[in-house]
């Protein structure tokens, strides 16, 4: 029997004037699952989180949390971290958490929460005097004072340094292990790969792909790649048994002069080296890489953007033709 979804969106639609933010967005998140929403800016991630948490009313479709509508659910069971969250500056970190804890009948000790987010030694520091990353961690802590059953985090680690980011990651992992259901948005593919049981890619207001990070990489990530830093042209590799091309734009950091050998196993790298040396091709480096979630993101997001652009161009062409007919 399929587990009942703790968080669910069914065909959510939301527009602001002529701007479509959500276009039939659907997802289901099970108890204790970490579900990461990824997608380009303007894809609708924040609007979807707002619709799921009841802070934005969708134009159509249905959102449910623990079987209730977002506006009817017991708020003490939820933790919500908006993308933009600005608590009072002239309170200490401890005072801020104590304030939010005071909103609940059975809240956690603010000192314990500060320790959870790695700020045990900064409790008496005013919020305005904390670094940007420390402020964000305090904000994460504010969502945990009520020990929520369901946690929504909209880009939780934005502005946090690598060490602090790993503290937050471990915290989310521990929360999920204890049964908390987590929905988060992120632009950090490493964050999504590490934390998420499943990932949903939102583009154009719709969830166009979902699955475990491993399944998404397998289905959409493409082939493994060996990047060769060389001035040689891809045509010079015509008789190599593997496909060779220039690097695709936007696919990570690549040298100005390089070629990419695709679909190659690490054991075959020596064959390519022998090939280079037999032909006296000069090269300054070799880098082998497997596809990852960033490749999935770029492939599917680029494809959706291309389809959207083609659709806009087609509409413009039809409009031009219609205007030409009217003036003929």
TrEMBL record:
Q: Is Nucleotide-binding included in the keywords of this UniProt record? A: yes
Q: Where is the composition biased (Basic and acidic residues)?
A: 308-320
- At the top level, the lineage of the source is Archaea
Keyword flag Hydrolase: no
| Organism of origin | Natronorubrum aibiense
Family under the similarity heading: Belongs to the ABC transporter superfamily.
Q: GO molecular-function annotation terms?
A: ATP binding; ATP hydrolysis activity
Question: The ABC transporter domain covers which part of the protein?
Answer: 7-229
**Listed transmembrane segments:** none
**Name of the protein described by the UniProt record:** ATP-binding cassette domain-containing protein
Please name the Pfam families in this protein's record: ABC_tran (PF00005)
Annotated region described as Disordered, given as residue ranges: 308-328
Mind listing the UniProt keywords for this protein, alphabetically?
A: ATP-binding, Nucleotide-binding, Transport
SMART domains recorded for this chain?
A: AAA
